[in-house]
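Structure in, sequence out. Go:
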């Protein structure tokens, strides 16, 4: 589904990502983890098209179609291909209603009509009675639900989330885990997330990629994260 080969990125003179490789298969749930400041969000922004890749390649494969190199594709083009993104700061339009937010997400992905299907609210029934409420009036949990719904309304093939548990309470985190598990295991949606909370990673992910100082230093099954050699690199 998604292949990264020798991806490098810089902020000015600072080398942030160093020759990162990642292979993700359709239907997988993969977690990118590591300590703060190791390039995790930068890597997601390269994948979603919000940052250019300095060197290396990002390739998208789907449904028997010829591989597509994404390096020159912008964020809207990648959304139209089926890449949904939930950034850690949510990026909802606070002055627009829930329904208007969803309509904009659809149009950004190439749906000219922007008609929100009723099924959008099946996963987030809490949002349905709030569909005419402005984003600014929503509490934190419903803003997070709206950010997720914005990514899912385009019916993505790959859902990308940046630290979805950050700032949320244990009850909401458990519900979020239920949603991600259902999306992955019941609907077959591929999921790529950045996360540091180990209990959440173990619950929702199949495999991990550990970044340290911008380098991928370990990849494997989530069970391998119990290796005492790796844990200090996640929370240092």
């Amino acid at each position: 589904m998604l292949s990264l080969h020798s991806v490098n990125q810089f902020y000015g003179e600072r080398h942030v990502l160093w020759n990162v490789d990642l292979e993700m298969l359709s239907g997988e749930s993969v977690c990118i983890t590591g300590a703060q400041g190791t390039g995790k969000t930068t890597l997601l922004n390269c994948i979603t098209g919000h940052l250019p890749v300095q060197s290396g390649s990002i390739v998208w494969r789907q449904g028997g179609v010829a591989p597509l190199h994404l390096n020159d594709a912008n964020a809207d083009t990648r959304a139209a291909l089926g890449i949904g993104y939930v950034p850690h700061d949510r990026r909802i339009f606070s002055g627009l209603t829930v329904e208007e937010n969803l309509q904009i997400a659809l149009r950004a992905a190439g749906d000219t009509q922007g008609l929100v299907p009723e099924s959008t609210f099946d996963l987030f029934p809490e949002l349905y009675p709030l569909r005419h409420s402005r984003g600014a009036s929503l509490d934190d949990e419903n803003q997070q639900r709206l950010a997720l719904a914005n990514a899912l309304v385009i019916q993505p093939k790959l859902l990308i989330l940046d630290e979805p548990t950050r700032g949320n309470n244990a009850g909401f985190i458990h519900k979020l885990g239920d949603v991600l598990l259902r999306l992955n295991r019941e609907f077959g949606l591929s999921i790529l997330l950045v996360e540091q909370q180990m209990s959440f990673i173990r619950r929702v992910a199949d495999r991990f990629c550990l970044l340290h100082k911008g380098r991928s230093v370990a990849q494997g099954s989530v069970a391998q994260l119990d290796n005492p050699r790796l844990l200090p690199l996640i929370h240092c």
